[in-house]
Amino acid sequence: MVEKPLFPLFLKLDGRKVLVIGAGTIALRKIEALIEYGAWVSVVSRDAHPDIQRMADEGRIHLEIGEFSAENVKENMLVVDATGDDDLSPRVVEACREYGVLLNTVDIPPACDFYMASRVSRGYLQIGISTSGASPALAKRLREHLERHFPAKWSDYLQLLSAARERIKKAIPNSQRVRSLAAEDLLRRTMRDMFDGSVPLDEENFERQLRALEKS
């Protein structure tokens, strides 16, 4: 049977509990990504990388030095097994199945319920890249290509568009079709400039046109 492709899904992790098993260099990368998006991360491991210990000392994560127990899985939204331990990982898989918790494990791809995608992060703009494990090298190349295509300034552009959208919604009722079309044209031209890497977005001109729309 041909394996189905992965379903792309963006999760709200802010304040959600995530368990990471293991505290080495692989776990460190996973933890850093998770806390960047607001997850409350608990870590269980026999020992800990110095940077992970430092995070725990600063109160950014909860660290439990000791052996994994199936009970650790309970009440978590996600579990990440970053141990690469052939003896431990099957026990983690079994515990996650028992408690209905989604699992990512670094060394048993068929047991994974989700993958942490290669990503390009530009504020509100989040681009996730996955090859379903077929070619991590290609996923990396695609990420590097997109990082060049969408420079850091796009974070500011998205903030500008988001604020403009809210102002337009307040200033222009749906019944005022002509003004609404003018607003759509302004946003369309602005997005065209965003995609034209040779010309920086003229934010001052955008603001003048937006104010004119609000007053008309």
Explain what this protein looks like in three dimensions.
Helix 6 packs antiparallel against helix 7. The strands form 2 sheets. A 5-stranded parallel sheet has the order 3-2-1-4-5, sandwiched between helices. The chain has a two-stranded antiparallel sheet with strand order 6-7. It contains 7 helices and 7 strands. The chain is 44% helix and 15% strand. The chain is an alpha/beta fold. The model has no long low-confidence stretch (mean pLDDT 87). The radius of gyration is 23 Å and the shape is elongated. It has helices at 25-36, 50-57, 89-99, 136-149, 154-171, 177-195, 203-215; strands at residues 17-21, 40-45, 62-65, 78-81, 102-105, 118-122, 125-129.
Describe the structure using short key phrases:
216 residues; alpha/beta; five-stranded parallel β-sheet; elongated; two-stranded antiparallel sheet
Task: Please give the structural blueprint.
Layout: E1 17-21, H1 25-36, E2 40-45, H2 50-57, E3 62-65, E4 78-81, H3 89-99, E5 102-105, E6 118-122, E7 125-129, H4 136-149, H5 154-171, H6 177-195, H7 203-215
Question: How much helical structure, as a percent, in the residues?
Answer: 40-55%
**What is the N-to-C order of secondary-structure elements (H for helix, E for strand)?**
EHEHEEHEEEHHHH
Number of helices: 7
Mean pLDDT score, rounded?
A: 87
Structural class: alpha/beta
Distance from N terminus to C terminus (CA atoms, Å) equals 61 Å
Shape: elongated
* Cα radius of gyration in angstroms: 23 Å
Question: What fraction strand?
Answer: 15-25%
